[in-house]
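Quick start: read one record
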Amino acid sequence: MKQIITIMLLLATTFIYSQNTLEGTVIDNDTKEGLNFVNVYFPSLEKGSVTKEKGIFKITGLPSGTYKILFSMIGYETQSLNINIPNKEPLNINLIPSAIEMEDVIISTPFHKLQSENVMKVEQKKVSDLKANGSVTLADGITNIAGVESVSTGLSIGKPVIRGLSSNRVLVYTQGVRLENQQFGDEHGLGISDSGIESVEVIKGPASLLYGSDALGGVLYLNPEKFAPSNTTKGDVSGNYFSNTLGYNTGAGVKTSGDKFKFLFRGSLAEHSDYKTKDYRVTNTRFREQDFKTGIGYQSTNFKTEFRYNVNNSKLGIPEGLGEQSKNKTPLIPFQEITNHVFSSKSNLFFNNSSLDINLGYLYNNRKEFAEETLNGEDLKPELQLKLKTFNYDVKYNMPKFGDFETIIGVQGMNQVNTNYGPEELIPDATTNDIGVLAVTHIHFNDIGIQIGARYDNRMINIDSGINKNFNSFNGAAGIKLDVLNNITARLNLATGFRAPNLAELTSDGIHEGTNRYEKGNINLQNEQNIQTDLALEYKNEHIDFFVNAFYNKVNNYIFLSPNGDIIDSSPVFVYLQNDAKLYGGEFGLHFHPHPLDWLHFESSFETVTGKLSNNDYLPLIPANSLSNTLRAEFDGKLITKGYAFIKFKSTFSQNNVSTFETNTPSYNLLSAGFGGTVEFLKNDLTISISGNNLTDKTYINHLSRLKTDNIFNMGRNISIGLTYNL
């Protein structure tokens, strides 16, 4: 005991006497004048400051060690560098003017670098930008990211699709922990509100090295809003109106931070009527969503921690064809009522030249599905009720740097209990336990970055009926980033991934009401295992940014549903089968802002994916090829700051490469436009955005719409108006 106390005292002494201060100046590279309001930020420490008069900054309370520091400001290239703390000499930083948007740190990859420094290609979008484009929900907004689509059931239910893979093949992270909410179901959406989410990151391709099973197809990583800077208080209220659904969402938040403690609160409410096409309203696509998020953080020199909580309650209508033409907002039978609780904690301990990251999460998902009216005035009771309780952990040690080597070792795991409470049982009661160990290294050279890693996972599924299943897998990844010329960067990544079959695939034996089919599981299913090659080329200069991303994904033992021709209880029978599959395609894009019209931007992107089984049959639910062209203007004036205007034309091509039980989908074109900016109102900032989607009121059906089989159109013209007032 004395030895333990002595060690703790020594550590405490180290912490007390390792506080350091960093000072410096940031200037314009061309004019050599000091720059005010430049953000100076340590991502791993979550500490920073803003330059003051003549570009001077000062940050106190820094631990000893080597850390990445960022310098960013609109209109300039983001600059990052690793510095040793304590740093005896003041920093002198030159920022280069640029019309390209400033970069943010990518959180979903292991070493938290800028995208320009990453070996892996990761897409990142701010949620505020997605909402400015008129997205009604988060699932709707992510379809603006190249290579990402959504399998939708009306407007309220959407599942992310990354390069043709979805459901349990795409892992979603929120608040730094994996989201578990019965995502096996076709009609089970994200269950996450965009309120209080700052940005979205997308890893396209197998990420099992970093995240384990279910990241075979990619990762959707949702970054929560940051706490307020030290010794500041911020608040805002917002409201959005949507003409098509006669819907709205409102929200309010406040956050305050002292020297050590930080707090935030945010609540939102959204309510929508049935969405309207040119000819009719789609019955029972109405929904209501309530969301509350809160967080508390503590930070000292060598330690920081935060605890966050999110509760989301959604009441979602399930459309079953055209019927009542109404503007009511209360869902009809059938509907889902879903409550998601997400508790998470993130802690970081900083030692000299190393650190320990500990992420813990507890998620409680209560899913109810109501299918029939009650009689004799009885309370409405769910036909199906599933409760899913998940505890997960993620512990990583960032080892001291050894020359040009950065290395992380870690352990991740999950305990999950699924329990039935309703009269119907879609999947059985069961307990799932995961554990995985990993190691990944980044090697730095002058113009080359190399990243390699390996991982072992084990998943045990214990079904209450007495069946036990055990799945395990070794996976690895290797990538290289090479600066070919001054303006050309190449990335080549090779990665393997795996996915253990889920409970529905193993054990289903009944009618899945939301899909109108009888599903039969297959207890003998094996791991899905894939290997993907990903090549990315990027050319960038002061006025042109051009990229080409190509991939080839080979999936062994791909699990899929197929009708067997039988009928049970008037429903067609679908069984789970396995076969090898392949997916290939890519994304291509151009961003052009001509000199001297740096405020004018032309953006174009094309995305394509093809999926086939080994017998050359096409895979189901593969998104159609699409081409997007956007003309955007940005401006700042005396009355309006951060002003913008855009017009977007998206062409979705016909999808004729369909599976044996799908139908073809014709092509269509959609026109969108919008504008907005920030004005001063009562001495505070008021941000206004107005956008219009499907301005020609085109009637069309997206290939990934689950209402396609009933020949029901997607949403028609929608005008949205958004206001956010900073208090």
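Residues 154 and 285 are 5 Å apart (CA to CA).
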